[in-house]
Amino acid sequence: MATLTDIPFSLLDLASVPSGSNISATLQRMLRYAQHADQLGVNRFWLAEHHNMDGIASSATAVLIGQVAAHTERIRVGSGGIMLPNHAPLIVAEQFGTLDCLFPGRIDLGLGRAPGTDPITSRALRRDDMRAERFPEEVAELQALLGPANAEKRVRAYPGADSQVDIWLLGSSLFSAQLAAQRGLPYAFAGHFAPKLAREALALYQQNFQPSPGMKEPYAILCLPLILADSDDEAQYLSTSSQQRVLSLLKGQPLYLPPPVESMTAICSPMEQLQIDAFLGLAVTGGPATVQSKLARLIDSLPVQELMFTNDIYDEQQRLHALSLLQQLKS
């Protein structure tokens, strides 16, 4: 049975802009965060593609991956994920093939089929909504482009062919779990915003996994929200930043990361609080002992090989400290 010592810890980041800050400062803060994670021995640092969302600065995902990889030494860097229906598979293969040439053996390509935005912005991206239905075929196309070079092919990814890029399928429902299992690919479930289906999706993936040339055993990541501080009370206080942002999402408002507040009662109704709590249903919040206990129960009850965390803490130093505390749980 796996223990916390055995389970790799990784991070998902959206380059969230704190209230009162700007994009340039946020990206520098993101790089410092990634460097700290690299020094601590965190396994992966992934960035998520979103578009036209005030407060989330990770829209040019491949560009940011290159910057993070350039400013770190050993941590794996990748996408959590690239929304494949927004892009031609050839372009994705060339971008990530180039990243792999620059940072060999350190690049992950996580793929999703959602738009990562609203319908109007989808049209601005020239997105064909029917492409989501062709997601399995486009994943196969991308696998071929990043796979062994074939001189007889009329269309080749250059760079891209013969790459070491690891392809992951991401999901918040059962569809990608089933597809990842059929293709023998690693799988990551978005428990940080879709907690209800986590158990079913992960079980479906493990039970239906078919070995592939690249993978003999299933490998699943569960992503979940983490707020870790020196005490339970401090962590509960810091968690109001992410709660406020979920409230903004529910209301269709900008998604800047606000400073924490003493109480959410004056900000949201009881019904809104229930919606926030459901959205953050897998959140792990508390001091070191509490978080250690919660994580141990999670890995005991869910078939996962790795945990990935969002870490939405407003203050930069407290955010870095949370990461240090997290890695200490392994000692």
From TrEMBL:
Name of the protein: LLM class flavin-dependent oxidoreductase
Keyword Oxidoreductase: yes
Native organism: Bacterioplanoides pacificum
Keywords recorded for this protein, A-Z: Oxidoreductase
Domain called Luciferase-like: residue spans: 11-238
Signal peptide boundaries: none
Residue ranges of the TM segments: none
Record family assignment: To bacterial alkanal monooxygenase alpha and beta chains.
Highest taxon above the source species: Bacteria
